[in-house]
Amino acid sequence: MENGANAVDVMILERNKNLIVKIMGDIDQHNAEEIREKVDKAFERSRCGHMIFDFSGVAFMDSSGIGLLIGRYKNVRSRGGTVAIANMNHDLGRIYNISGLKKIIGSFDSLDQAEKQAENRRARA
Amino acid sequence: MIYDNEVSISMSARSQNEAFARMAAAAFAASLDPLLGDLTDIKTAVSEAVTNAIIHGYENKDGLVFITLRSYGAEIIITVTDEGVGIEDLEQAMTPLYTSKPELERSGMGFTIMETFMDHVQVTSAPGRGTTVEMRKTIARQGRKSDFDCLFTGLGGAGER
Fold first, then answer.
1. Distance (Å) from the C-alpha of residue B155 to the closest C-alpha of chain A?
2. Architecture of domain A9-119
3. A36 to chain B: which residues are within 8 Å by CB?
4. Mean pLDDT by 10 residues, chain A (125 residues)
5. Which DSSP state fits B104?
6. Would B141 be classed as within a structural domain?
7. What is the mean pLDDT of chain B?
8. Are B24 and B7 in contact (CB under 8 A)?
9. Between the CA of residue A117 and those of A18, A83, A106, A111, B121, what are the distances in Å?
10. Which residues of A touch B49 (CB under 8 A)?
């Protein structure tokens, strides 16, 4: 069994007006609340337009993750920004596809790609 | 019916037990030598059912969630039961994107995910008496010999162990 199975770490940094949120741990109802609080607080304080989730440390996500992402999407949209996901593993891809999330939140193979996309959006705006 | 293997769990309806529940289900299913994708499907479906029991069945109040894990041949049969408020309108509850708790940022995808990731989902519920979700899935065994494996065995591979 994984160590500290129901613990989650959230690392948040600002880079080029993107709020980059790295989640390390599972995303379920239990952890989603903690992630939501931390991300919303950081987003409110920041002047970031876009939000990018780095999922390289996420091995598991259930529908709580969908709710979490849609909620953040609504917040970020109110500032005219976008939400993107980077480094999502294959298993999470299924739930991402079923949920219809891909229509509103892009998934990128790397953080670098997600940041470039945000940069392009800014250039067009 | 006599099952090949059977495990029962009763646990407090607390969200920190969601991880325990899905890992127990994965550990149980692992003895059937499943593909990794099937294991993820089972973990996700169990996580959805247990979350429903905690936040809808017991509305985040005290209670016990009962889980049974059974296997018969390559099939795994999982039940998740709560003795909470029950579901009044089952059809509505199982409609994709419907949620009675939008304030908790629920996506309304729980039952849809259970139905997509498992072969068969049956929900029994009565208002005031609780809810049981039974889910079944036939496991694609990792060790099952494919035509590809047989080809190599035929060419003088390791053969049957």
1. 33
2. 2-Layer Sandwich (3.30)
3. 105
4. 66 96 97 96 94 97 96 94 96 90 94 94 84
5. G
6. yes
7. 89
8. yes
9. 11, 11, 9, 10, 40
10. none
| B6 to chain A, closest Cα gap in Å | 20
Residues in chain A: 125
Beta-carbon contacts below 8 Å between A and B: 74
Whether B156 has a pLDDT exceeding 50, the answer reads: no
Q: What is the ipTM of this complex?
A: 0.89
CB B36 to CB A91 under 8 A?
A: yes
DSSP H/E element including A63: helix A63-77
Best residue in A2, A26, A30 to probe B by mutation, most B CBs within 10 Å? A30
Residues B43 and A60: their CA atoms lie apart, in Å, by 9
Kindly name the residue from B14, B60, B75, B106 that is annotated as catalytic: B106
CA distances, A71 to each of A33, A35, B20, B122 (Å): 11, 12, 26, 30
> Is B159 inside a domain boundary?
no
**A82 vs A114: CA distance, rounded Å:** 11
For the segment B103-115, what is each residue's pLDDT rounded down to a tens digit?
888 889 999 999 9
* pLDDT score recorded for residue B28: 97
B161 part of a folded domain: no
Query: How would you classify residue B119: left for phi > 0, otherwise alpha for psi between -120 and 50, otherwise beta?
Result: alpha
